[in-house]
Amino acid sequence: MQQFLPKALEVLREDFSELSDVTVEKDESHAGKVVLRSCYGRNKHIFPASRWEPYDPEKKWDKYTIR
Q1: Whole-structure pTM over 0.70, yes or no?
Q2: Do 49 and 43 form a contact (C-beta atoms < 8 A)?
């Protein structure tokens, strides 16, 4: 999923200019999620958006906590 979404978005941007502000982020279930940057900007202080971060294939999620 983490490889599919960015590639799909890249292809779609060629035909849909309104997708220029769309990003691919990870959500709380560790799956990919496509969100408008404006949506993220409005909600980045609210959980789960406050915990989103760029995907890192090397990161270990076994000690992930919510506090």
Answers
A1: no
A2: yes
